[in-house]
Amino acid sequence: MRAAARRTRRHAAARRPRRDVGREAADEIEGAEPFVLDVTDPGGLARLAERAGRAGTLRAVAHAAGISPTMADWRRIFAVDLVATARLAEALRPLATTGTAMVCFASMAPVIARVDPAPDAAAVLDDPLGERFLDRVREVLGPAVEDPGAAYAWAKLGVRRFVRREAVRLGPLGARVCSVSPGIIDTPQGRQEAENHPSMAALVERTPVGRSGRPEDVAAVVGFLLSDDAAFVTGTDVLVDGGVCAAVHTAT
Ligand SMILES: NC(=O)c1ccc[n+]([C@@H]2O[C@H](COP(=O)([O-])OP(=O)(O)OC[C@H]3O[C@@H](n4cnc5c(N)ncnc54)[C@H](O)[C@@H]3O)[C@@H](O)[C@H]2O)c1
């Protein structure tokens, strides 16, 4: 009962984008103003796009908002991690211009789990803004997708696939988009997952660089992908996992 109550509190917290987090981040950037929204709210995304358009040229978007398996049920995980990513990209697309760059957050989860969709599943996954998306996901992947861990891996695979299609749309505008797939990173979300899945400690043990990741490890890669130094990089994923996927999948 206590665990269930804890989970319910976590679920509620995961649904609330925190105003103080936005304010703290904005305080670190000169001239920045926070704009707090729930990324699953299409009205909020439209207001964000309108505000960004008024502010000037859209240069860089780092889309880190996301939830993990212990935070919600399978439907909410798909809605926040995949559907909202596609909606955000759709809302910002009219602002894309020469030099615009976007990074979406995926995960190493589909790599570790070796998630490999059959063609019919891939077709559904590649249509996150289609009608009855969640029902179609359930139909094509079966009841196993109701497990939050499975849903998370599929949703994040959807993000990795989404940036490939989005890159093709953005290329003619002079804009780019990539995803990053973090490994085990020491953030509130990473710590919550580690608390609930003792197997994650074994993965850290097997990580070739010998530690879990720091937020700065991921931020540095995102910074590069958003910079002009990455002008020839688009439509791809960058795994930032300290080598753990290589360790898990490579016989030595
Ligand atoms: N930490 C890890 O080990 C890890 C591993 C793989 C992938 N990721 C991914 O990296 C990204 C960043 O994760 P993090 O570790 O910083 O997580 P975090 O939980 O520490 O931060 C995620 C942020 O997203 C916000 N958010 C959640 N739902 C939202 C919604 N509906 N609308 C707006 N904001 C919302 C939360 O309020 C929070 O501020 C996420 O997409 C996560 O899935 C993290």
Q: Can you say what the CATH homologous superfamily is?
A: NAD(P)-binding Rossmann-like Domain
Rounded to an integer, what's the Rg over CA atoms? 18 Å
Number of domains: 1
Number of helices: 12
Q: What is the share of helical residues?
A: 40-55%
List the uncertain runs.
1-10
Give a description of the structure.
The chain is an alpha/beta fold. It has a single domain (2-249), classed as Rossmann fold (3-Layer(aba) Sandwich). The protein has twelve helices and four strands, in the order H-H-H-E-H-E-H-H-H-H-E-H-H-H-E-H. The protein has a four-stranded parallel sheet with strand order 1-2-3-4, sandwiched between helices. The protein starts with a helix and ends with a helix. Nicotinamide-adenine-dinucleotide (NAD) binds at residues 14, 17-18, 21, 38-40, 64-68, 80, 105, 107, 182, 184-185, 187-190.
Name its key features.
8% strand; binds nicotinamide-adenine-dinucleotide; globular; alpha/beta; single chain; 252 residues; Rossmann fold
Give the structure's gist in a few sentences.
The chain is an alpha/beta fold and 252 residues long. The chain is built from 12 helices and 4 strands.
Secondary structure layout:
Blueprint: H1 2-15, H2 19-27, H3 42-55, E1 60-63, H4 74-92, E2 101-105, H5 109-112, H6 119-125, H7 133-141, H8 148-170, E3 176-182, H9 188-196, H10 199-206, H11 215-226, E4 237-240, H12 244-249
Parallel strand pairs: 1-2, 2-3, 3-4
Helix pairs in contact: 3-4, 4-8, 6-7
Residues 14, 17-18, 21, 38-40, 64-68, 80, 105, 107, 182, 184-185, 187-190 line the site of nicotinamide-adenine-dinucleotide.
